[in-house]
Design goal:
mainly alpha
């Protein structure tokens, strides 16, 4: 791996896997076993380095567009959302938190986040037909995002404190449980 790739991989790991959201270029350089000036040579600033690595992650995990999912049932959309986020957040558990807390959502949000707000009319119909216990699409989506994205940070925390290993069947069963909580 060349030096530029090593810097990017170390930065991804520190920021989005370990959750060291405020890691400095000095900390990234130390973890990569290089001098901080090398990061400056390749990327000039930490902001540009982060911009580059988030774009790489977007290419690795492109979110579906609304056109990709609009003809699916609400249940199928929820399954896709859970599966997409499980795959992305298993690899980078702190990525979503970083983007939201660093006010990077507007730039990267459309490319990296599932088109949840497009589902509001369908959720509203589901509410009016009594197919969910929710009375507000906003509460529905807020709870959904919390259960799906927040779970990965919680699991990462628990893994660091114990020897928890989750199987793929665990994630599948969890997806089913979440959908059953949201839809009757």
């Amino acid at each position: 791996m060349n030096t530029e790739e090593k810097i990017k991989e170390v930065a991804k790991y520190l920021l989005f896997v370990e959750g060291r959201l405020y890691a400095t270029t000095q900390q990234i350089a130390q973890s990569a076993g290089i001098d901080r000036t090398v990061i400056h040579y390749y990327f000039r600033t930490k902001a540009y380095l982060v911009y580059i690595i988030i774009n790489e992650i977007i290419n690795e995990f492109p979110a579906p567009s609304w056109n990709d999912i609009k003809d699916l049932s609400l249940k199928q959309k929820l399954e896709r959302y859970i599966n997409y986020n499980t795959e992305k957040n298993n690899k980078y558990p702190y990525l979503d938190i970083y983007i939201i807390t660093q006010n990077e959502f507007s730039e990267f949000g459309q490319k990296l986040f599932f088109p949840l707000t497009e589902m509001i009319p369908e959720i509203s119909v589901c509410i009016s037909e009594g197919k969910t216990n929710y009375s507000s699409p906003l509460q529905f989506l807020t709870d959904l995002v919390s259960m799906v994205s927040g779970f990965h940070v919680s699991v990462d925390f628990l893994r660091k404190k114990s020897d928890i290993v989750l199987s793929s069947s665990f994630y599948h069963q969890r997806a089913e449980r979440i959908i059953n909580l949201f839809l009757k």
